[in-house]
Amino acid sequence: MSEVKGKILFTKEQIEARAAELGAQISKDYEGEEVYIVGTLRGAVMWMADMMKYITNDAEIDFMMASSYGSGTTTSGVVKVKKDLEGDIYNKNVIIIEDIVDTGTTLKHLKAYLADRNPKSIKICTMLDKPSRRLVDLKADYVGFEIDNLFVIGYGLDYDQKYRNLPYISYLEG
Ligand code: IMP
Ligand code: MG
Fold first, then answer.
1. What are the DSSP E strand ranges found in the chain?
2. Pairing status of strand 152-153 against strand 168-171
3. What does the alpha-carbon distance between residue 70 and residue 155 come to, in Å, rounded to a whole number?
4. Could you say which of 37, 42, 147, 162 has the lowest number of CB atoms within 10 Å?
């Protein structure tokens, strides 16, 4: 066993249980409809894998990569789409699966970018939300957990591209 990195906020079991709850909620909200699940690379992959298992609707999955961060922990405010969707979302129910909403800059941009293609609907499901850090008007429709202003790692989240593989969410004490 390797030692725990940082202070644990949420265990794998807690995260999976929350994914099951939100997945059930989404399945109900979109009953009788197909959904188009868009995961944001790279941070959302673990959470997306959990969520997908609990969404019972017919579903397509796709990925996007956008970035507003360089390396380190401060945002540049500039959002670049580095990898676009493979599929067409016209008239589809898009659900963006994100790791964390911090300032909101990235998702506000991504949502507008995808809305331009006239999907039937577009919603956001984020594993974590840091509402106290918001700089733009952006609300996630489904939130795993709200957290305080902490820099978190693990379960997909990185610090300088490391720690994404930790099977829990923890924070680094500064
Ligand atoms: P936003 O555009 O400021 O909302 O930032 C969103 C992105 O910043 C997320 O998708 C993460 O990649 C990154 N980010 C924000 N807060 C954290 C954190 O606490 N740990 C790791 N990455 C973070
Ligand atoms: Mg991200």
1. 7-11, 35-41, 59-69, 75-83, 93-101, 121-129, 142-146, 152-153, 168-171
2. antiparallel
3. 20
4. 162
What is the DSSP track for 98-109? EEEESSSHHHHH
The kind and range of the H/E element at 114 are helix 105-115
What are the chain's domains? 12-150 (3.40.50.2020)
Could you confirm whether 102 is annotated as catalytic?
Answer: yes
Q: Does ligand 1 have an atom closer than 6 angstroms to the CB of 106?
A: yes
pLDDT for 24 equals 98
* pLDDT of 87: 98
From residue 32, how far is each of 26, 27, 48, 86 by CA, in Å? 11, 9, 21, 24
Instruction: Check if 9 has its Cβ closer than 6 Å to any atom of ligand 1.
Output: no
Q: Tell me the average pLDDT of the chain.
A: 94
Assigned token pair, 170? 């923890």
Q: Which of 50, 62, 84, 102 is catalytic?
A: 102
Name the β-bridge partners of 41.
65
Specify the ligand 1 atom closest to the Cα of 109.
Answer: 2
